[in-house]
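Hi R.,

Here are the chain sequences for the assembly we discussed:
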Amino acid sequence: GNSVTQMEGPVTLSEEAFLTINCTYTATGYPSLFWYVQYPGEGLQLLLKATKADDKGSNKGFEATYRKETTSFHLEKGSVQVSDSAVYFCALSRGGGYQKVTFGTGTKLQVIP
Amino acid sequence: SAVISQKPSRDICQRGTSLTIQCQVDSQVTMMFWYRQQPGQSLTLIATANQGSEATYESGFVIDKFPISRPNLTFSTLTVSNMSPEDSSIYLCSAADGSNEQFFGPGTRLTVL
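And here is the predicted structure of the full complex:
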């Protein structure tokens, strides 16, 4: 079956540090890959997505590249801010919004001033 | 994209009682889903809410415990029945419009005493 593995947190960084959150997946075929963010006390928001190999999703300074050869979709940001403190979920779906989304366990990021 | 609202946003309930959570989408969508997020955990799909037919439940979830209604293309309810403290979670509704994306509601934070 489909599964997503992401690095355990919490991750604590100083403001302006470089962020990497690792994510690898197992799936048949060519899934779509997502990063969702959950700010404290709020629901999930889609941060970025990629639907085919070598696609790069980007939003709000965050980037992730769909690497089929390594089955990875690592999240990166060059300079984090305190406002980036949240829980980040890597996820996949088999394709199309009709398919259920399989989530990783989430990585909590805390950015300190 | 779709904007999703949920009611209530949070509730504290006594064991043995039931709570119905409402999910409203601002546009017609083909698929709606219900997820559970237990404290400190990732999201787990409970069921797919099908318009005009019975919901499709994931392994480990049953209709008697989590009855779901989907009377039209913009609305769904999830009932958590005969609650116990183990049901304390965030319950999230999501909707899919056929694109490669699901949109999530803000969640309902349930505490069972």
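The CA atoms of residues 9 and 17 of chain B lie 18 Å apart. The interface with chain A takes residues 30-31, 33, 41-43, 45, 48, 58, 92, 94, 96-107 of chain B (CB under 8 Å).

Let me know if anything looks off.

Best,
T.
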